[in-house]
Amino acid sequence: MATSELSCQVSEQNCERREAFWAEWKDLTLSTRPEEGCSLHEEDARRHETYHRQGRCQALVQRSPWLVMRMGILGQGLQEYLLPYQRVLPLPIFTPTKVGAAKEEREDTPVQLRELLALETALSGQCTERQDMAEITKQLPPVVPVSKPGTLRRSLSRSMSQDAQRG
Known about the structure:
Layout (H helix, E strand, L loop, with lengths): L2 E12 L4 E26 L4 E15 L4 E6 L5 E4 L28 H14 L8 H7 L9 H18 L1
C-alpha cells in the first residue's frame, strides 16, 4: 500500500502590531489500496497455472484547519464531513452581548464553563459555601462569662461532692 502526503504551512507576521500566526497541517493524503469486490483468480489444473489479479483504487483524504474533511476515491466525487468543534477547544469561545449590561440582561454562563470554574475553585482550596463569622457564632451555644477564676472550681467541686453523697 503506497501513500503520499502533502502538508501545508502558513505563517504571517505583523511587526507593527507585534502579532504572529503560524499553522501547519496534513492537507492531502493519497493512498493506494486494494479495491473491494474487484479481484480475478483463475486456475488451470491441467497446465498447473494460476492467475490472480487484484483491483486497486486510490483513496483521497483532504483536511483543512477549518475542521472540514473531504474523503473519496480519486476520479470520483469527494464526500465532505464537518468535524466536531469540541475536539479542538474544550470550551466554546463567546463574547458578551453587552459588557455594561445589568445582570438581568446578561446571558447565562455556559454549563461547560460553570463546571470548569467549579473544578478550579475546588482544586485551589477555596470554599464555595463560605459563611460570615456572625453566622457561625449564632450556631454556637452562648458564652457564660466567669467573674472570678475560683468560682468555676467551687461549683464543680460542690457538684462532684453532692453526686458522691447521692451515691
